[in-house]
């Protein structure tokens, strides 16, 4: 018994140490700063006001499908926003697209997926999340068209967000994010540190210059607080979860799941999508779950089921479905869950065929 406990603890520490060494400095820290900047410098109201049933579909669904990159939220954070959208008169289609895409295309999660599980899978996650979010939203809007008719009556009373004039040039904020993204890309690139460090240093000086000369002190403080808020909410869970998954892998090695997820069959993708729908995985934790527990990084899990779980797991879980049912009713929630399972499985199956 003592040997088992010691072995599991060692496995947990080893798994955690590997993730910390390989991914924290070059991947997660820059990503947290980018997410904090998004939360501080891009106004959420500018996004949410375009979700009306009368808004052009290209605008409403387009903005809703990429909102996760702007809001940088996880499933636990997206639900209150989802409820707020319904109260403020959003159409059911854009709202569903928003609640699905928000966690799925989270900038932190996409970057972490690409770094740990491979660029191909990270890119597939981002692309399929957008496509599925729009498709699922359109289907829900078509099935429950009467809801939008009732919502239109409340739109006139919806308060408009005040708009202020920007004092700084419009190119400053985009350049700020370009420099931060440059730090992230260079930091994760497989190049020698003698080349990497000077480039990161120059980019960091550029960020500091913009912050000093073009941003108010309150804005910089808000950026810092937003970054810290995201870090303290997500990073401890990631550390604890990664350690726990390492211990779990000692008792349930990846070989255990190979018969179920080892091939990209339709059945395997459906099972992975269903498992993702039931499990609750905090933001970023789905990456070590797939990589370590299910054995994707060791070749025990096929690419299709991995994508299916990535598309269903972060966006839908049993706890989130219970909350969503209180917002829009049990019938719509069940339909939404079934569509997510089917579409995630089909996306994984298609991806598996493409990648061979």
TrEMBL record:
Its main location: membrane. The chain crosses the membrane at residues 20-42, 63-86, 92-114, 126-144, 171-191, 198-215, 235-254, 266-285, 305-324, 333-354. GO terms for cellular component: plasma membrane. It is found in: Cell membrane. It is a multi-pass membrane protein. Keywords: Cell membrane, Membrane, Transmembrane, Transmembrane helix. This is Permease. InterPro entries: DUF318. The lineage of its organism: Archaea, Methanobacteriati, Methanobacteriota, Stenosarchaea group, Methanomicrobia.
């Amino acid at each position: 018994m003592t040997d088992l406990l010691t072995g599991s603890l060692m496995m947990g520490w080893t798994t955690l140490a590997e993730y910390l060494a390989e991914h924290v400095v070059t991947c997660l820290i820059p990503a947290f700063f980018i997410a904090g900047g998004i939360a501080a410098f891009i106004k959420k109201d500018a996004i949410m006001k375009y979700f009306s049933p009368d808004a052009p579909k290209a605008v409403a669904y387009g903005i809703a499908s990429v909102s996760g990159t702007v809001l940088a939220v996880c499933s636990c954070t997206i639900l209150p926003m989802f409820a707020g959208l319904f109260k403020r008169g959003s159409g059911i289609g854009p709202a569903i697209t928003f609640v699905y895409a928000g966690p799925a295309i989270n900038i932190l999660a996409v970057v972490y997926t690409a770094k740990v599980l491979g660029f191909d899978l990270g890119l597939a996650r981002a692309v399929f999340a957008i496509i599925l979010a729009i498709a699922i939203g359109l289907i829900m809007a078509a099935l429950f068209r009467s809801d939008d008719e009732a919502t239109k009556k409340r739109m006139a009373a919806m308060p408009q967000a005040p708009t202020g004039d920007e004092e700084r040039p419009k190119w400053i904020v985009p350049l700020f994010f370009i420099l931060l993204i440059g730090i992230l890309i260079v930091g994760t690139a497989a190049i020698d540190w003698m080349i990497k460090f000077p480039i990161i240093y120059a980019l960091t000086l550029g960020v500091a210059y913009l912050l000093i000369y073009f941003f108010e002190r309150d804005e910089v403080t808000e950026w810092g607080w937003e970054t810290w808020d995201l870090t303290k909410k997500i990073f401890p869970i990631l550390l604890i979860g990664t350690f726990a998954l390492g211990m779990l892998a000692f008792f349930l090695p990846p070989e255990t799941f190979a018969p179920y997820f080892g091939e990209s069959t339709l059945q395997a993708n459906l099972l992975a999508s269903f498992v993702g729908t039931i499990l609750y995985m905090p933001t970023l934790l789905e990456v070590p779950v797939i990589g370590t527990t299910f054995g994707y990084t060791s070749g025990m899990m096929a690419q299709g089921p991995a994508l299916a779980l990535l598309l269903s797991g972060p966006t839908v879980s049993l706890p989130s479905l219970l909350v969503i049912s209180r917002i829009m009713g049990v019938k719509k929630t069940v339909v939404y869950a079934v569509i997510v399972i089917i579409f995630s499985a089909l996306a994984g199956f298609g991806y598996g065929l493409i990648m061979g």
